[in-house]
Backbone:
């Protein structure tokens, strides 16, 4: 829920601070349409803003919130779960509360535990907490980065916001792309902690920024408070039975879903044809007395459409299903442009646009909260790339095949390549690639990054010569590899490493961005991914790799745990990537994409933006139109989305020549 923003200056606030703060908060209206709250202290140089989406404590939960002695000021975006129990225990210890808001528990927890208060918070959140007594500000982001939080440091002053557009609303925050980040946008994989924009940083998941006044300056420290911390391979407990792990999955998921059904407004579910969302709906349907409202995307291309399986699940649990049918007119045009404005980064596939359209329908149906299935693939080994690494490296590092012969493993690899052929070029690489720095840090080059290494080879030469000169010698794969905490990879199983590196990059910059919070909150709608509950995650990391992916079956332990609530066809089905049909799959989509290219990536726009060489870009587009190779087309489709997206974002945020209507 909500959006937060603000800034802290080493000196006094500027004379226009009140106007600037209100402008920053107003950019977050879509995140918090139910009202604004502000805290301003001119002498301390502090300005804090909050845009509210009312979900819990509709009457008295406005923010900012204050401690009993008024010394601490708090703004929160997100939800704290199990807050009623925590609040009651704190009341028994003598703490008073001025509201029924879940957010307020952070204040007495901070008073009691200091900086370790975050260890006692369960949920998805971004926090700004000012401690007047210590004259310090704390910015915190949840453990997986479900909720966004960005910051900028300028002349010793710190600006922050739930979205980058809030930072840009302050006249002292400069606007511009970062040349290295432009290259990362094209290859789809961001360096953790970075954005597409120069000197705009993303607070990393599981981190807090501690800003301490020191005389006339502000000292800034980035501190990690949580990580996945997979067990060392030689210390992993393999003594527990498969039934034990299956039971633990059931117990932890049941609690995580039950907590996420807590709200003072109706709660629905997203429903695709995958195990993850079907598990969420199955559990929620058993917990709630009335039928659960389920929202499903349907595509006009049968090869990509999961709606029939989703309907079977909805019928099985008697859910009230709402199906959103999406064609070219829905996936391109204005919806495409609005999705970019909300995501503030490019996307390789119009799935983000589809989810934007779905959240809009959720809002129209009177819902503000849905439980979702994001995070399951990250925790239980669901993605094809993770499975490929398990089959290639995982059984070797287990020092046995657990009853699976090398011939069987090879047959599984061949079958996986065949069943995922539709996605080669974007989700899977058609051939094995490696990078020396990634090999050194991880022990191998994870399969998930290999298709984007192919894209990098095509994309880099398209850049303008000035940018190529500026980033000469820059190695984006090495930079990504070096961003990982090596201590979290050393001595771990190959599957753990693959899951960890994906979660630190693609989970945050893709799944939880244009596939999650940004397109949901675009329509004032909060998504709650129960799988990313940190209690669930800490349970899942202890499951032996050969039970996460067992032979040819990915997410085996989750399948077994949810077996009785899933349709048989889904229980037996191999993981199928959830994507929108790319533009090259249909003439209407080709024309719709070309219409956007004509408007936002014509020669005048390309020249004005100065990001790409006009002749080389024109030749690439000609080659794309003449291409007949399906793998090459999937890769080029993804790259065109990034090329187009950068030009749209340039107009929206750098030159401000155009912003979507109704925003």
Residues:
């Amino acid at each position: 829920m909500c959006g937060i923003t603000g800034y802290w200056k080493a000196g006094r606030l500027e004379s226009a601070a009140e106007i600037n703060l209100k402008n920053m908060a107003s950019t977050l209206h879509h995140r918090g349409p139910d009202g604004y709250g502000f805290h301003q202290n001119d002498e301390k140089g502090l300005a804090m803003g909050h845009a509210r989406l009312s979900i819990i404590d509709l009457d008295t939960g406005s923010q900012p919130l204050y401690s009993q002695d008024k010394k601490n000021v708090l703004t929160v975006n997100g939800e704290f779960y199990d807050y009623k129990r925590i609040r009651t225990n704190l009341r028994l210890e003598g703490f008073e509360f001025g509201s029924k808001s879940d957010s307020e528990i952070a204040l007495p927890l901070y008073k009691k535990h200091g900086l370790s208060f975050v260890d006692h918070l369960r949920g998805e959140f971004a926090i700004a907490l000012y401690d007047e007594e210590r004259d310090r500000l704390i910015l915190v982001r949840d453990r997986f980065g479900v909720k966004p939080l960005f910051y900028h440091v300028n002349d010793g002053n710190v600006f922050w916001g739930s979205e980058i557009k809030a930072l840009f609303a302050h006249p002292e925050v400069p606007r511009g792309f970062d040349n290295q980040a432009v290259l990362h946008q094209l290859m789809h994989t961001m360096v953790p902690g970075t954005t597409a924009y120069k000197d705009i940083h993303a607070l990393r998941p599981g981190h807090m920024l501690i800003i301490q006044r020191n005389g006339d300056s502000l000292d800034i420290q980035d501190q990690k408070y949580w990580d996945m911390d997979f067990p060392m391979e030689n210390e992993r407990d393999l003594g527990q039975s498969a039934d034990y792990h299956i039971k633990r999955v059931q117990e932890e998921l049941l609690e995580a879903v039950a907590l996420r059904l807590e709200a003072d407004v109706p709660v629905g579910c997203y429903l695709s044809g995958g195990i993850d969302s079907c598990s969420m709906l199955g559990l929620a349907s058993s917990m709630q007395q009335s039928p659960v409202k389920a929202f499903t995307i349907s595509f006009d291309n049968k090869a990509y459409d999961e709606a029939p399986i989703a309907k079977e699940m909805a019928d099985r649990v008697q859910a009230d299903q709402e199906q959103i049918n999406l064609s070219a007119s829905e996936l391109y045009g204005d919806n495409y442009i609005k999705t970019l404005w909300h995501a503030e980064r490019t996307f390789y596939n119009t799935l983000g646009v589809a989810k934007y359209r779905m959240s809009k329908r959720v809002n129209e149906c009177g819902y503000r909260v849905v439980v979702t299935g994001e995070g399951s693939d990250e925790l239980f080994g669901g993605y094809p790339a993770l499975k490929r690494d398990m089959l290639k490296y995982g059984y070797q590092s287990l020092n046995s095949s657990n009853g699976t012969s090398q011939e069987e493993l090879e047959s599984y690899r061949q079958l996986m390549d065949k069943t995922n052929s539709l996605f080669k070029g974007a989700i899977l690489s058609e051939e094995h690639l490696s990078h020396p720095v990634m090999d050194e840090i991880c022990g191998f080059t994870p399969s998930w990054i290999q298709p984007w290494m192919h894209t990098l080879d095509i994309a880099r030469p398209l850049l303008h010569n000035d940018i190529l000169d500026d980033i000469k010698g820059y190695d984006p794969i090495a930079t990504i590899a070096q961003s990982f905490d090596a201590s979290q990879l050393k001595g771990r199983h190959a599957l753990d490493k693959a899951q960890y590196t994906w979660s630190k990059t693609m989970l945050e910059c893709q799944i939880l961005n244009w596939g999650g919070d940004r397109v949901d909150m675009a329509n004032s709608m909060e998504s709650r991914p129960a799988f990313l509950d940190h209690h669930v995650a800490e349970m899942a990391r202890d499951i032996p790799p050969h039970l996460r992916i067992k032979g040819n079956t990915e997410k085996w332990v989750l399948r077994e745990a949810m077996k009785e609530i899933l349709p048989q066809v889904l229980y037996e089905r191999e993981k199928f990537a959830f994507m929108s049909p790319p533009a090259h799959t249909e003439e209407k989509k080709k024309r719709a994409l070309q219409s956007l290219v004509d408007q936002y990536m014509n020669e005048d726009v390309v020249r004005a933006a100065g990001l790409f060489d006009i002749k080389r870009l024109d030749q690439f587009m000609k080659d794309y139109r003449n291409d007949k190779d399906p793998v090459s087309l999937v890769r080029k489709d993804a790259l065109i989305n990034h090329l187009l997206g950068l030009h749209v974002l340039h107009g929206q945020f750098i030159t401000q020549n155009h912003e979507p209507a109704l925003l």
User: Anything to note?
Assistant: The chain is about 45% helix and 15% strand. The chain has a mean pLDDT of 93. The CA atoms of residues 390 and 495 lie 6 Å apart.
